[in-house]
Fold:
Amino acid sequence: MGSLDTNPAAYASFAADVDAFRPLDADDVRSYLHKAVDFVYDYYKSVESLPVLPGVEPGYLMRLLQSAPPSSSAPFDITMKELREAVVPGMTHWASPNFFAFFPSTNSAAAIAGELIASAMNTVGFTWQAAPAATELEVLALDWLAQLLRLPTSFMNRTASGRGTGGGVILGTTSEAMLVTLVAARDAALRRSGSNGVAGITRLTVYAADQTHSTFFKACRLAGFDPANIRSIPTGADTDYGLDPAKLLEVMQADADAGLVPTYVCATVGTTSSNAVDPIGAVADVAARFTAWVHVDAAYAGSACICPEFRHHLDGVERVDSISMSPHKWLLTCLDCTCLYVRDTHRLTGSLETNPEYLKNHASESGEVTDLKDMQVGVGRRFRGLKLWMVMRTYGAGKLQEHIRSDVAMARTFEDLVRGDDRFEVVVPRNFALVCFRIRPRGGGGDAMGGGEAAAEKANRELMERLNKTGKAYLAHTVIGGRFVLRFAVGSSLQEEHHVRSAWELIKKTTTDIVGEDK
Amino acid sequence: MGSLDTNPAAYASFAADVDAFRPLDADDVRSYLHKAVDFVYDYYKSVESLPVLPGVEPGYLMRLLQSAPPSSSAPFDITMKELREAVVPGMTHWASPNFFAFFPSTNSAAAIAGELIASAMNTVGFTWQAAPAATELEVLALDWLAQLLRLPTSFMNRTASGRGTGGGVILGTTSEAMLVTLVAARDAALRRSGSNGVAGITRLTVYAADQTHSTFFKACRLAGFDPANIRSIPTGADTDYGLDPAKLLEVMQADADAGLVPTYVCATVGTTSSNAVDPIGAVADVAARFTAWVHVDAAYAGSACICPEFRHHLDGVERVDSISMSPHKWLLTCLDCTCLYVRDTHRLTGSLETNPEYLKNHASESGEVTDLKDMQVGVGRRFRGLKLWMVMRTYGAGKLQEHIRSDVAMARTFEDLVRGDDRFEVVVPRNFALVCFRIRPRGGGGDAMGGGEAAAEKANRELMERLNKTGKAYLAHTVIGGRFVLRFAVGSSLQEEHHVRSAWELIKKTTTDIVGEDK
Structure:
């Protein structure tokens, strides 16, 4: 940082600082980062003993930290002390091996190192020219992952025969992947339906199973679709809560018959609620009748498809338009990293391209490069490809498959434990590493919605709340087919089988306190 | 990671790995991170000597790295070696002190440390309960920054008198801030204009100066606005390319008279092209006549407003609906960190809220907490508040102001150097740390668009390309009032005054090669 400001007012504030401020001094960076690494080491060593869900009340932090920003600088040790003493006690510890809620945010040494280096380089890769290696490494990492997933080459940036029309981009969230593909599909549908500007938007319809993540319905609203035209197709136990293609066809046909324009179908592989799987190929066949865009949301379970034994869940993917999956969920890559693949990148860039003068350059004009800003919402973008590449480069397909299989094996162990106790039931088939279970209703069929069900809901809520209050486990719930169900999601990266067994012991004991012993 | 899978197919792949794979083993994490820290240290020590803009051709990386993912694991040193040998030579070095392009992505030791710790904790703070401390620290950091900016308390989450209706959220990009506020404004305009569903969207109009970042026009299209209803208000030298409120009024009034619904105005403080400043207060007064939402994009220059001498650029902000600024640009916080403040959070959450069963919890239902997922596009979110808080906590207002003033002083130095050489002209007044200059047209007035202008454009393009090819400086261009102009953006965090002076020497010498000596 350069010379001092000669403005007297500014000078006054410099009086105490004889040395110029160098925020990126290499020795300071090393010193701060070593302190941060020590923190991370201690954190991973101790996180198991911390309450997974903290017992803090809303507003707790405001009472611990000053409400106004400091006017003068402080040693970094003070910052770290406040982190340890005020922030850590209020964290929900996603890294804890006793975390079983939502989906785990898996992580690895290679990913964190990659993120650190990306933060330090701090490039903004909006165009190829602005960061050639960042753009190309992202593209390469996406192509590697496509090969691990055995995606058709039509989704790859580069194949043995050169550049195709397909490609990918790393985004922050699945929601963004949905949004940008919805917008591309919307614009295509407006064009083919002869809309005058956006006037025809009122006729465009979109489709997804009722188990689809709520963020899909939100993305539709963001893109301007009419809430009345967002179809949520009911599912049931008959399809294990997967989308029924016959029902989809019926609804789409009715809309088409009514003069509406079926535009987009979202199919999910591994729903958030219960890990249900929509049949991609059959969905694509139905959608093709209406020229509707098909997107596959495989945010969580996509990672499992790097193992041959799970790959069948993606059968038919060669007939969809786009697919997204998030290595930040189950492929050991810290947040955020959602990979979106499309079969025809021009359909995306046609809706998302911008070309301001200050970003023009020869490489972009040559048409030989991909400017990744044209496949996302924003312009700026982090160097996310580095960590994803580092994960695959360091661990290789073998270790990554081992990681998936180990999690699934632990989930199977938990499932077997649940099945071995008559007080419980597994509510839907376990597809991946999520077990949906509950205390069975007493004195009646498990499917009845009578008094037995109300009591069961009460008991299961009670179980969840007591468990979470112990700080020794954290799990979340869902509702499937009207039933309140506990979700036990295996796979937090520090987790080992003994954590799963300990959690089960705690669940059994707590259940005994609530409903009594197993008969 | 737990027990081995007993499935024989899976077992086969484990045969070579007797030890279970532990991707987050604390010792491995420490070891990998120490290697990464060493890399970062060496990088900052050496980046000055690397070509700022690499001389690589499209596809270079594909030729250096294998095209298929490795099947087995490798020592992390191999990954680091490939990073050093294949990736670094293809990077555009935004961290170089010789980087003068676009806007600098400023950074600091505290920010990188914060990002590292956030990556390791890897929390997903969609709801308060999912990460109480992450939510509260983000809210606190935003309130601190609001105080540094002297924003009215109506934009703060907490004030001395408790929780108000305003608040903020950290997003990834300015584009997302524009998009979510556009959607909120769109929905409000549809409601107040009595639209049947989204049918009324064809009547909604949005406004911005022609200098507004192209991502605004893209965000409008993402949100479903009709391209024909997106008004780009011409600007000129008379307002230094800032938005003229009288012209805005004229266009909005004409639309209203034609039965259209003026919905949203985007004002910019510090445009990307030339750092023009739209007059916020006057724009707000015009927009108020039509109940249109006013958003202020202060992505770059907002940071300067922590200094009293620059704060006047935000005068009138108390009358706008939302403002966003990006500490990842000029407040020493590595990517990504865009702070969005709104005066009424309910107007945002009304359009963005989702409430899936699996995220329901007592804290959310109490209404006492902010679930930040309801103020952004996606659900998942990184713990971005940590690095922003660490920057303010460690450096304090004093050092941050010193940082801004030092950059501005260096830009002033450069400006003086340009003004001291008759071959050049400064094209628009320098408001912050960006100097827009060019080689003057010869043999005629600088404003003439005749042959002198064409030759000047050629000379300036030549100058830029020659400079960038040296690897000793990187700067970008823009077009202002039809003139091709070079942008010299000061402030890369390793930059000192001698780098600015060296760049100027290089510019002078190269210009001499192109157009001859100063007379």
The first strand of chain A starts at residue 158 and ends at 159. The first helix of chain A runs from residue 8 to 14. Chain A touches chain B through 195 residues (CB under 8 Å).
